[in-house]
Write a structure and sequence with these properties.
The chain is α+β, with helices and mostly antiparallel strands. It is about 40% helix and about 15% strand. The chain has four helices and three strands; from the N terminus they run αβααββα.
């Protein structure tokens, strides 16, 4: 386990990790970047209330990285 990592392995993402993301990421990665739990993230996405743009591709959700970075105040 990394230093300063919460118990259970869940942790946020560093600025460097965020800037290395691809154009769209899975919902789990978006949740981690925003500090959301799995259930809450999926609930928000399903209801259309996720804090940034989410694409629905079949059964999968993809978070648009540009929107995620803008929400977090980071420039790609």
């Amino acid at each position: 386990m990394r230093e300063n990592e919460p118990a259970g392995g869940a942790r946020g993402m560093s600025r460097e990790e965020l800037l290395e993301l691809s154009a769209a990421v899975d919902l789990e990665t978006g949740n981690r970047a925003l500090g959301l739990g799995r259930s809450k993230g999926y609930e928000l996405a399903k209801r259309g209330l996720y804090p940034c743009k989410v694409l629905r591709l079949g059964n999968a959700y993809r978070v648009v990285t540009a929107d995620l970075l803008a929400l977090l105040g980071l420039v790609a």
